[in-house]
Amino acid sequence: MRETLSPTRLRWLGLLGSALMAASAHLAGSAGDRGPGWVLGVGLWLVGAGGLAAVWWRLRAVTVPGWLLVTGALWAVPLLLAPPLGSSDVYAYACQGEIVGAGLDPYAVGPDALPCRWLEWVAPSWRDTPAPYGSLWLLVEGFAASVSAGSLPLAVTVLRLVAIVGTLLATAAGARLARHCGGNPARVVWLGAIGPLPLVHVVSGAHNDALLAGLVVLGLLAAVELRAVVGRLAVAGAAFGAAASVKATALVVVPFALAVVPWARTGPRRIVAGAVLAGATLGTVLLLAGVTGHGLGFVRSWPATAGNVQWSSIPTGIGMAVGYGLRAAGRPEAFGNAVEVARLLGIAVLGAVLLIAWRRALRGGVAVAVPAAGVALLATALLGPVFYAWYALAGIAVLAAAAPRGRLGTLLDAGSAGLVFLTLPDSLGLVTKTKVPGALLDVALAGWLLTRWAGRRPPHPAEHSRMPAEHSWMLLRRSQTMLGRLRMLLGRADAWRRRRVRAVIRQLRSPV
């Protein structure tokens, strides 16, 4: 059966899966009455998303980026014509844009302050919540609301187009970056542009993480390709500053740009390069904050989602498991403290992961620094207080260019597809219905990782004792070789001197 399914047939089967997902958006995309129509919609969602993921997986061997882009564009059409899937954040974006247009401070009030004309479509948790995004994204939201003329579908379409542009930017820059990392541009398209994750949470959901991903990959490419060192760092810093003006989490990738510039890896040069890069990044953030007039209010409103306690964040899930144990022991009031402590430990672990990744990046050049930057972005998402599937878009976009192979590459590919199933069409998170097993899963995952780390075999003491001896023996052999060559050179020089002396004596003895 597999041999009869050509890439062209798989393309049309993927379109069928996309159409089923679009139909599910009409039936089950609204968090309203969950009646028979909703059940049917969820069924179509599972069949369509599962089928699309299977077809997408079968296309991973295709090596023509253009063909894959056309396929992705075809799959995107039904989703562009349907309501958003998997999340209602795009409605909150539109209402935040109305707040900007009305001249209110989006960092001080939520959509219910106007109230926003589309407030009924916004999730209750976002209706009175200030915007946690940077000034560049507020500019985009304000533009979408202003050109919509009161039409919510038009505002959603504008925001979707911005997200798609971000993904295309990440794809174009990632394809060039892949050549420096030994990667395949076709894989960049396959994983970063046409997979189930970008189709659901970029094309349909219009999440701003897509724009962040595009700017981050562009910054890394600028640091790799531009000729002048100062120009590399300045352009990269400007791209990173723009990305941080969408979401502040983009800042974790800034130090990795130093690792892709050979001139800036060691000594005082690293300090100078770091100053240029940091100055360009911070300058761009301040410039956008000043030009838009929104300032840096996102700093105080950024932890807007920290109140969501879900096991999709690994530290939060571990804290939940401990909290459930305390509840069983008669200490239910300690649940919140357990979660907070676990989150603090997660931040500490994240700091260690970022430091280790950066040190390895500095030693390995572009082929190591780029995947390290992707790992840093993914770790920031997974070890943060809250994790949603679309938070992984930036890390996956960078890793798509870095060409991870073997089990790591397979895990990345399968994980990106599996993230789609964390939410249902109406944004109902399955993590909210699986709290206890999910928390225990996080504990098991953390235990497995610790076991693997602790089980790494340290070098045997005998190996340490042999290393100096072997090193000394090598030095002795090299010294003997160098002495032999020196003796040979001295012998040749002496022979030349003797010949010259004899020639001079013959000239003196010869009659005039």
From TrEMBL:
What's the protein's topology in the membrane?
Answer: Multi-pass membrane protein
Task: Note the Pfam families from the entry.
Answer: MptA_B_family
Q: Answer whether the UniProt record assigns the keyword Signal to this protein.
A: yes
Keywords (alphabetical) are: Glycosyltransferase, Membrane, Signal, Transferase, Transmembrane, Transmembrane helix
- Its main localization is membrane
Does Signal show up as a keyword for this record? yes
Describe the family membership recorded for this protein in Swiss-Prot or TrEMBL: Belongs to the MptA/B family.
Protein name as catalogued: DUF2029 domain-containing protein
Q: What is the source species?
A: Plantactinospora mayteni
Instruction: Recite the lineage of the species.
Output: Bacteria, Bacillati, Actinomycetota, Actinomycetes, Micromonosporales
